[in-house]
Amino acid sequence: MLQNLNIIDLAIVESLDLNLEKGLSVLTGETGAGKSILLTALGLALGDRADASYVRPDCERAEINLSFDLSDAPAAQAWLEENEFDADDQCLIRRTIRQDGRSKAYINGRPTTLQALKLLSSQLVEIHGQHAHLTLLGAEEQRKFVDAYAQNTDQLEKTNQAYRHWHSHHLELEDLIKSSTEFSNQEDLYRYQLNELEQLDLAHYDYPALSTEHTKLANLEQILQVGQTQLDLLSENEQQSANQMVSQSISALSELSSLAGELEEPNKLLIEAQIQIQEASQQLRHFLEAQEIDPQRLLELENQIGIIHSLSRKHHVEPEELPAIAEKLSQELNNLSHSSERIEELETLVELDKQDYFALAKSLSQQRTQASGKLSELISAMIQELGMPQGEFSISVTAQELNQPKINGSDKIEFLVSANPGLPLRPLAKVASGGELSRISLAIQVTTSHDKDAPTMIFDEVDSGIGGGIAEIVGQKLRTLGNNTQVLCVTHLPQVAAQAHQHLFVFKTSDAAMTTSQVKTLSTEQRIEETARMLGGVNITDSTLTHAKEMLMSGITSS
Fold first, then answer.
1. What pLDDT was estimated at residue 557?
2. How much is the pLDDT for 112?
3. Which residues make Cβ contacts (< 8 Å) with residue 204, sequence separation at least 6?
4. How far is CA 64 from CA 1, 181, 309, in A?
5. Which of 102, 227, 489, 501 sits most deeply, having the most CB atoms within 10 A of its CB?
6. Which residue has the higher pLDDT, 289 or 393?
7. What average pLDDT score do residues 398-414 get?
8. Could you tell me how far CA 51 lies from the centroid of its own chain?
C-alpha cells in the first residue's frame, strides 16, 4: 500500500508530506484547491510524461517521493527481485523534474527508465480518472475485466504465445510464397550460369597452365626456327660451332701447359665450358625433336581461352576466380532449393500452430464463459443496489469462427445492460447514461476488487453524476472496497466522504507573493465541519452540523 506521498516545489505545492492509511481515504476541498495536483504528482511519480511547466516558479526542480509497503504486493516484490532492485518490505519511488524539462526516476535509490517505472507502477497502483467509466465502452477493456476476474493470466499467455508462434511462421511463409516466382526466375539464371562455367571442366581447371600452353603453341614455329639456329651455333655446325671452337682452344692450351703451368687453370675452365655446351645442346636437341606443330590443339586452346575470357568479363572477375564463382552459384542454388523445402516445412508448422492456438483459445473461451455468468450475476446485484433496481447486467462471450488466429483469443466479449424491466439487453454504450455508467463502473470495480494485483486504487471523482441515497450507497461500497485494498478517492459528495476511514482536506493559502496548496488530515470534529460544508455550502447551520455528524457517525459504525 502507499504509505507516504512527499511533494516538493510541484506547481502550487511548495512542500507536502502526506501519510496515508489503509482502507478508504477521501480527498475533499473547494474546487481549485489543488486536489488534482495530488493526483498529477502521483501520476508523475508513477511514470507519466513530465515537462518544465510542473516546476514551481523560481525553483530549480520539482520532486515527488512515494513510499510503499510491499507486504500486500507480492507481484511488485517479484518484479523488483527479477530486475535486481533492492526489495525488502519497502519500495521507494522518486521522480525529479528540472526547469529545462528533463526528468529522472529512481527505484529504491537506483536510477531507472520510465518504461521500467511504469511496469512496476502497474503492480502497485491502479488509477481511475474522472472519465474512467468511459473506458468500459471499449471491447478491449471489457475483455480485460473478464480475464482478470476469471484469473486467465496463464491461459491467456499460453494462447497469445501460440498466436505469436503462428504469426511468425505465417509471415515467413507469406514472404516465401510471395517471392517464389522471383526465386524461380533466379534459380533458372543461376543454373544457366553454372552450366556455362561447368563446360570449363572445373575439376581440372588450371588457367595459368592453359595460358602457358597456348602461348607456346601459338609461337611454336618461331621457337623451332630460333632453337635450330642456336643448336647449329652450339654444336651442329662442325666448322663454326661453339663446341668446335672451344675444342680447338682446349687442344692448343693443353700443348702450352707443359711450357707454362699457369695455363692449366684456364684450360680446365674451357673443358667445363665444353661439357656445359654439350649438355645444353643435347637438351635443346631433345626439346626440338619433341615439338610438333598441332593446329587442332591450338584451335581448341584458343576457343577455350576465348570462353574463359568471355565468362570472366560477364562475372567481372579474373579468369583464375571463375571456380570460386561456380562454387558461389552452386551454393545459391542450394539455398533456393531449400526455400522450397522451407515452404513445405512452414505450411506444416502453420497448421500445427493453428491447431495449438484453437485448442487453447477454446479452453480460454470456456473459462471466460464460466466466469462471465457468475460475474454478470454479481454486477447485476450490485447495480441494483446502486439505484438501478430493475437493472440487469450481462457479459456476452461469443466464440467467433476464425480462419486465422488472433491475439487474446477468438472471443467477442461485450457488456450488455438493461436499465428498465421489459427492455432487452443491449450493448452498454447504446443504453447507459453518464450516471449509470459511473455506477456500473463502480459496481465492476467493487465486484472484481479481490482479483486486483495492485494493492492501491485511486478514484478521481468517479462518483460524478450521483447524488442522494445512491451516493450513500456508493460511499458504502467504496468503504467495502477499502476493506480489501487501499482506496484513495477524490470526491465532492458528503455521503462518500462520511464513509472514509481517513479524511484528507485540500486547501489553499496565499500571501502577497505566492499561493500554495496544502493538505491536512482531519480530526473527527473537523470532518463534521467539512461534511457540513459539503452538505450546506457557505451558510452552515446547526441543523447542517447535526446532519453531518449523523452521517459521519453512521459511516464510522458501518462495516
1. 60
2. 94
3. none
4. 17, 61, 77
5. 489
6. 393
7. 93
8. 26
* Contacts of 194 by beta carbon, 8 Å cutoff, 6+ apart: 326, 329, 330, 333
3-state secondary structure of 447: helix
pLDDT, tens digit, for every residue of 229-262?
888 888 877 778 888 888 888 888 888 887 888 8
Rounded mean pLDDT, 331-343: 73
Long-range contacts made by residues 152-159, C-beta under 8 angstroms, separation at least 24? 152/364, 152/367, 152/368, 152/371, 155/360, 155/363, 155/364, 155/367, 156/364, 156/408, 156/409, 158/360, 159/357, 159/360, 159/361, 159/364, 159/408, 159/409
Domain spans, the chain: 184-335
CA-wise closest residue to 223 among 237, 208, 213: 213
* Confidence band, pLDDT 50/70/90 cuts, at residue 45: very high
Whole-model pTM: value is: 0.61
Closest Cα to residue 531, out of 509, 518, 546?
546
3-state secondary structure (DSSP) of residue 404: coil
State the residue for C-alpha cell 568471355.
310
The rounded distance, in Å, linking the Cα atoms of 375 and 451 is 12
Instruction: Report the 3 state secondary structure along 199-248.
Output: CCCHHHCCHHHHHHHHHHHHCHHHHHHHHHHHHHHHHHCCCCCHHHHHHH
Using H for helix, E for strand and C for coil, what is the string for 84-96?
Answer: CCCCCCEEEEEEE
Q: How far is CA 157 from CA 83, 206, 283, 354, in A?
A: 21, 62, 88, 16
Three cell numbers written together for 541: 447551520
Question: What span, in angstroms and rounded, lies between the C-alpha atoms of 84 and 95?
Answer: 19
Question: 47 with 118: CB under 8 angstroms?
Answer: yes
Q: What gap in Å lies between CA 532 and CA 512, rounded to an integer?
A: 30
Q: Is 446 exposed, middle or buried (0-12, 13-18, 19+ CB in 10 A)?
A: buried
| Predicted local confidence at residue 512, as pLDDT | 64
